[in-house]
Structures are given as C-alpha cells and as structure tokens.
Write a structure and sequence with these properties.
heterodimer; A: alpha+beta; elongated; B: D-amino Acid Aminotransferase, Chain A, domain 1; six-stranded antiparallel beta sheet; 10 helices; 13 strands
C-alpha cells in the first residue's frame, strides 16, 4: 500500500518534471547546455586612489557603444563624489569630482555589455583615414627631396611586404612579420628614427600600417575570455579592413575574436587622468551573464506561455538569482548525502555536514578549502581540549569555541589580505557554526570512541565533501538547476525512492564479509 | 536483490543490513511513541518491575545541579553505586564508584575522583552531553551490579552483559559482551569489547569477535571465550522474552547483567539494537526474523514463546505454533 502510493508519487513527480522540461526545451527553445560563447557580460572597474586634501577631478575612460557591444545599465558607486559622463574626441569618460579628498577612496563602475550584430547596423560610419606623416604619396616625394635613412628603410619594408602579399589581408600579415623582426637593420633604423614609442611591437605595427595607408590604431582594453573575476588590461591593435575595424594581435596581426574584445581607450590615451590624487590603481573584472539564447527563450515564453516566465528564476533580480544559484544546488547535495549514507554507508559527522562543507569549498576552491578546514578544526580541537580542562559547562564551552573560531577566521582573512591572497575574502562565507559543531562532535567522538573513530569520521566527512564539491561546481549542473528547476522534482523522486531502499550498504559488504564467505563454505 | 556478486552472496547469508533493519523491522514494528519508554531508563525500570523482571535498585535521581548533594548522601549510605544519564546512549557518561574518600569518590580502578571533577561530570550529563536528542537530561544513581563469579576471568574491569534481540516477544539471537582493557571496562563492541555468539538453546558461547575479527581467547586473561556456559541461561531467555513482550516494541535489544546476588537483571533496553550481533554469531538475522514476521500472532505465554525461539533457532517450521484456524502471513 505504502509502496504503491510512493510509486504513484514518484511517477507523478518524474512525469511533471520531464513534461515541463521538454516543453521548455522543444517549444520555447531553452538551451540545454550552457552557451559558453555568451553574448552578454558584466564589466566592473574599481578605482582606488589616495587624495591629498585638495579638490579631486578624476577622469576614468569608459567603454563605448560604437564597437561590438552596446553598453547599458551603467552604475557608479562613488560616495561623496559628483559623477558625470563626458564624451570627448578621445572617447567616453566618467568624471568624478569632489571638493576635497583626504586619504584613500574607492570608486566603482559597472556596466552590462550586450553584443550587437554589426551586419544589421544601419548607420554607416565614415571610413577613417590613415594618420601618418609618411604616407606613400608623401613618402615618394620626400625620398626624392631628402633620402633620410628612416624613409629609405620604411620604403624598403613596405615594398617588400607589398611584393610578398596577394591582397590587403596578407599584406598586413607580411608587414607584421617584418615589423616583429628587430634584428632586421631596416627595423632598427625605423626604431631609431621614428617616433619614440615605436620600440614597442604593437605601436610599431600601428605606425607601419598607417605609413602604408591602412588606418590602424593602438587599443587598450579587456579580453572577455575568462570567467574569472580579474581581467587585466591588454593591448592589441585595430586596422581598417573591408569597411570595418578588425581587432588583431599587436605582434602577429592575427585577427582576434571580435565578440571577445572590449576596447576602452585608443592610441595610448590614459585610462585614468585628472588631478588632486596619487597612488591610483584600476582593476577590472568581467563576468559572463546569462545566455542570450535564454533571453530569447524568455521572450518567446512571454508570448506563448506566460506562466513559464512567471515561475522562472531568471525573472528575479540578478542578486537574488545568485542566491538561488547556490540554493538550488542544495537538493542535489541532499541527494548526494542520501546516496553516501544509505547506499554507500560512509561514516561522517552529522547528516548534512559533508554537503555543507562542500558548499563552503565552493567559495574557497577545493585545496585551499581543505587546508583551511583542517587547520581551523585542528586549532579548535586543541582549544576545546583546553577548555575541557578548565571544566566549562557544555553550552558556554561551545560558545567559547565558536568565538575563537571567529577570531581564527578573522586572522586568516587579514593575513590573506596582507599577502594578497584572495582566500581571505572568501573564508568569511565559510559557515562558522558548521566548523564549531564539527569541532564539538569530533572531540566528543574522540573522547568516547577514540582517535581512530574520530579520524575515520572526519575523513569520511571530507571524502563526502569532495565528490559533492565537484558536482556542486559543475557549470552544466548549475545551468540545469537554475534554468530547469523543475528537474529537481526528479531529485525529489529519487530521494523518495531511496527512502524505501532496504538493500545493503556498500560498507556492510566489508563489515559482514566473514558471513558472506561462511555462506560460501556451507552451500 | 540485484545480481551483483558480493552483494548477492551477502543476501544469501541472510545478513540483515542497516537499511532493512530500519525500514522492515524498526519502522514497521517500533512505534515512535514507545521510544521514550526505552530511551528514558527511569521509565524502563518502572515497566520492567511491572513485567516482573529484576532490575538494579534505584537509589536516586538528580534532575538539576542543586540536587547534587544527593550523591554525597547516597555515597555515605551505599558506598558502591553507578551514575548514569537517564537518556544515555552507547554507555556514554556512565561512572561506577565503590567507595567514599574525604576528597571524592573511589572509582573501580582505585583512583579517587575529586568532588569538583564529579560535579563537572554531572553537569555535563545534566546538560545532555551523553544523551540522545538534545537538551537536558537527568542523572540516575543506582545499585552497582556485581557480575557473576563465572565471569571473573572473562571480564576486564567492567560488567559483562548479554544482549538478546527480541522480536515480537520471541528471542531470536543473543551474544555475550565482554569488556576488555582496550574497551576501558565497557562492554560495547565498537569500543573494543568482545562479542561472543551464544547458542540460543543451550546458552553456550560459539565464537568470539573483537573489532570484527574472530578471537578465541580473551586478550587480557588468555581464557577461551568459546564453549563458555552462560549461567542462568533459561532465566535470561525468560526475562528477555517477558520484557520484550510487555514493552510494546516489536524489535528490541534487551541487555541483561547476570548478577552474583540477584541473578539475571535488566540493564537497559535498546529500540535500535545494532547489527554487529550477526558477526558474533556468524549467522544472519533475516532468516530468523522472517518466520516470526510471518506468524499472524504470538502467544501470550512466555513458555510458548521460548519454545518458538528454540524451534526458530533450529530452523524448524513454525507452522505448529499457529493457533487453530490461522495461516502464516505472506508478504
């Protein structure tokens, strides 16, 4: 009876989950795998500087909407500063102003970038002109008048590149190859005679391209190809080829993926300018946003099936979405625990400890996480042993361990910050209470059942946390959980089924091996 | 069962796994509301007396810190006694004293435990450190049972006991638990005590295990642990069966101490008895439990239940114990 009821519930859950899932995939086109070539990004800049007590004017270069991306949802966090954006001939800038700033200050800028397909862009933009004092027409005349070594070398390089090339693109590649070879006498002559900055390979390529009549410019910007938060400023070049600017590697002139390059300033314009401050530092970070295929699916959903959107987590604000990205992994964690406990029979402290530890490891990365966890638990165990000698009562002793663990975590955070290690920040999310409870349970087990048993359980907890960590950090699983939360009904169904599992645990096979083997002999 | 080699071998041997124990027997036969009856040893004691079972005499109960002076008065009067948490599990927190000194109480190993240490320990017990569930607990002070002299060369520094698994009032399997130096005088198997399987009919031990490994002699005395006749065996079965039937829990572990003076005496009941007893007996529980599960009813008379236990242990069919007109339950 109970069995039939359970099977009906399980069947209903699985049918509902698969039904909603397949509707969303086949009818609304929700992506089944996360789209790694995502089209939207969030970019953040953090500007830190020190004021001298004077009025401060700080100009921060901003990405503009002219290239592959449209910049939307710009926000500035700059308490005490007046902020305005300004577009000059050198690009877009944010201008932060304050009457007097003494001591250090931090300003934040963030924006969302949406890729725009340039092919459908209607406004034709004017063809740029190569900026150079050495353009071919002028060069010929100049050589005739006064054959300086620079002009001769320049002419020779450009002629060679032209002769070896079949078209404009291969001309650029040849030129880059010649330009990169600093052992070439002509190149060293150009470096000596040309503008000062061209000892640098990318600047030299820009110089040579302009001299050849191909408009080119030097770019500082960000390559959007990582999902890590830190995005260093990179330099590359752009040249005008076939009615459009092409981003390319500064040394080889190999084209870069336009969908992944975000120019910020051109021609060595400063990222930060202004006065009234010193010790300025700018750090950029980039995060990939939710797939545009998703937003298209959401749009389609709002026409055909409004209930899908109303129940979709993607309609929540982004910070809430981030919370759910973690929350929705908890059912999976629970499933892992059920399997570890009921089917495998892993010893561990408490029921959900391994998954909570794994969630904590998500923040710290696995290896730092394990190191921090063992370190803090070891310190806590020693302290608890000492408090036990002082004969403190149970609850105050737990509280004392909790307080000390807080301090240990504070010191680790401070030390990490001082040494420039990021783990310092993430440990603040490490669940404090879990560590304290682990310490208390572990020391109790230690006292009652001995060190072996305590170690066995501690290792069991960690061993459970590691597979859980890998599952909880999988990009695909996270995608599934947030885009298709209905699939968690299947997890519920499996958990319910395992709730009626009366078979053996894997560890019981080892425990009762002697009985299994005895059965062999008699039968 | 799935045709997975090692696991199916385990199934063939009739081993009762933890999952099956929990679902098929504990969840099916032990109503949750009866748990306090066995978890709280003060209540268990009352029930046992109702069932006509010998229990250790209760000297007093300490409910909160202010009542600790009671311990001093009991110590003066009885000299030898046991202190244990009423809701304790796995023998945690139990302290045995056999004398009074000026500075404290004398423990079994001759050491004096200072009053301050005793008070600290009692406080830990009262705050539920050794107890099931969370929150506070009570401390019981009761008579110290002197183990039967037959055990003098078999129990190191503690009290040996007999664990009988009783299913629907019928004893199904039993083992003798012997404390060792390693187990610190405790009879618990997972702390390094020895478990010896017992022939349910004769009360003679068949084999011993320590840490899941087969042992033939007690490590501290070198005395053999097999072929030992447990004293008062029929009375032990009688006690277990009587209490198991009375308590309302279908699947229960009855722990019995054979006292030199009082004979078989109830130590405690366990609503979730462990499955290690199978290794001690080298026999799976499942084939012993299923026939009793199939009985539509069990007799009220203790003697008849013990007859069933004997037949069951020998692997005989239980059909002859059916009441007129009854049939074995099929599942």
């Amino acid at each position: 009876m109970k069995r039939t009821q359970l099977l009906i519930i399980v069947g209903a859950l699985i049918a509902a989950a698969l039904g909603i899932f397949s509707y969303k995939v086949t009818r609304l086109g929700f992506p089944v795998v996360p789209n790694l070539d995502s089209d939207t990004w969030t970019i953040e800049a953090k500007v830190s500087f020190r004021g001298r007590g004077d009025p401060v004017t700080l100009r921060l270069a901003l990405p503009n909407s002219e290239g592959q991306f449209t910049v939307v949802d710009e926000t500035f966090v700059a308490s005490g500063f007046g902020v305005e954006t300004d577009t000059t001939d050198t690009g877009r800038q944010a201008v932060f102003e304050r009457r007097a700033q003494d001591g250090s200050a931090v300003l934040f800028y963030s924006a969302k970038l949406i890729a725009v397909d340039q092919r459908y862009s209607s406004d034709a933009r004017p063809t740029p002109e190569a900026v150079s004092d050495y353009r071919r027409s002028e060069r010929r005349r100049a050589i005739e008048e006064n054959a300086t070594p620079l002009l001769v070398a320049l002419d020779s390089i450009l002629t060679e590149a032209l002769e070896k090339s079949a078209g404009e693109r291969s001309f650029i590649t040849q030129l880059a190859r010649l330009s990169a070879d600093e052992s070439d006498d002509r190149i060293s002559t150009i470096i000596e005679g040309g503008p000062p900055e061209i000892s640098n390979a990318s600047d030299r390529l820009v110089f040579l391209l302009n001299a050849a009549g191909t408009p080119a410019r030097h770019v500082q910007g960000i390559i959007l190809d990582t999902d890590t938060r830190q995005a260093p400023l990179t330099t590359w070049v752009e040249y005008w080829l076939g009615e459009t600017w092409v981003s390319a590697n500064g040394t080889t002139a190999e084209p870069l993926n336009d969908a992944r390059t975000l120019p910020i300033v051109y021609d060595r314009q400063p990222i930060v300018a202004g006065d009234g401050f010193n010790r300025v530092g700018v750090s950029w970070s980039v995060a990939r946003n939710f797939e545009s295929q998703l937003s298209r699916a959401m749009e389609r959903g709002s026409e055909f099936a409004p209930w899908v959107n109303a129940t979709s987590l993607l309609s929540l604000p982004i910070d809430l979405q981030l919370v759910f990205r973690v929350l929705l992994l908890i059912p999976l964690g629970a499933l892992i625990i059920v399997i570890l406990k009921q089917v495998i029979g892993m010893p561990a402290f408490g029921t959900f400890m391994p998954v909570l530890i794994a969630l904590a490891f998500r923040e710290t990365q696995l290896f730092t996480g394990i190191a921090l966890f063992t370190g803090i638990v070891a310190v806590g165990l020693m302290l608890r042993a000492y408090f036990n000698q002082l004969q403190l009562l149970l609850v105050p002793r737990l509280a004392a361990v909790l307080i000390i663990v807080t301090f240990v975590m504070m010191f680790i955070a401070l030390a990490g910050e001082a040494m420039g290690i990021q783990t310092g920040l993430s440990i603040s999310l490490f669940p404090l209470v879990i560590i304290t409870m682990t310490i208390e349970r572990m020391s109790l087990t230690w006292e009652e059942d001995g060190a072996t048993e305590a170690m066995k359980k501690a290792l069991g907890s960690l061993a459970g946390a590691i597979p859980a960590y890998y599952i909880l950090t999988s990009e695909y699983i996270e995608h599934f959980a947030i885009v298709f939360p209905e699939l968690l009904l299947i997890v519920l169904a499996v958990v319910l089924l395992l709730g009626r599992y009366t078979g053996y645990k894997v560890t019981e096979y080892y425990r009762f091996k002697v009985l299994a083997n005895a059965g062999d002999k008699t039968s | 069962m799935i045709g997975f080699g090692p696991i199916s071998k385990l199934a063939k041997s009739g081993v009762l796994g933890m999952n099956s124990r929990n679902l098929d027997f504990i969840a099916a036969y032990n109503p949750r509301r009866f748990y306090p009856l066995v978890d709280d040893k003060v209540i268990t004691k009352k029930l046992a007396i109702e069932a006509g079972v010998t229990v250790p005499e209760l000297y007093g109960v300490i409910r909160y810190g202010g009542e600790m002076n009671l311990l001093g008065r009991i110590a003066e009067k009885h000299r030898s006694f046991v202190v244990k948490p009423a809701n304790g599990s796995g023998g945690g927190g139990i302290m045995v004293f056999n004398g009074v000194a000026k500075t404290g109480l004398r423990r079994m190993n001759g050491q004096i435990m200072l009053w301050s240490d005793i008070r600290y320990h009692l406080n830990n017990m009262l705050s539920g450190m050794f107890s099931m569930g969370d929150g506070s607990d009570q401390v019981m002070v009761e008579e110290r049972l002197v183990p039967h002299s037959a055990f003098s060369k078999l129990a190191f520094g503690g009290v040996p006991d007999v664990r009988v698994i009783v299913f629907r009032g019928v004893p199904v399997m039993a083992m003798l638990r012997l404390p060792t130096a390693e187990s610190d005088g405790k009879a618990n198997l997972h702390q390094g005590g020895i478990g010896a399987g017992i022939d349910l009919i004769t009360g003679v031990t068949t084999r011993g295990v320590q840490h899941n490994d087969s042992v033939d002699v007690h490590p501290d005395f070198e005395t053999p642990v097999r072929d030992f006749q447990v004293p008062s065996w029929p009375e032990i079965l009688d006690l277990a069966s009587r209490l198991g039937h009375h308590i309302g829990l279908g699947y229960v572990g009855v722990d019995i101490v054979i006292c030199e003076h009082k004979g078989p005496t109830l130590l405690e009941l366990n609503a979730r008895p462990g499955i290690a007893i199978q290794t001690a007996n080298l026999r799976g529980l499942r084939p012993l439990l299923l026939p009793i599960h199939e009985l539509p009813s069990v007799p009220e008379d203790v003697k008849q239940r013990i007859e069933i236990a004997h037949a069951n242990w020998n692997g005989e069919s239980l059909e002859r114990f059916l009441a007129p007109g009854e049939e074995m339950r099929r599942h």
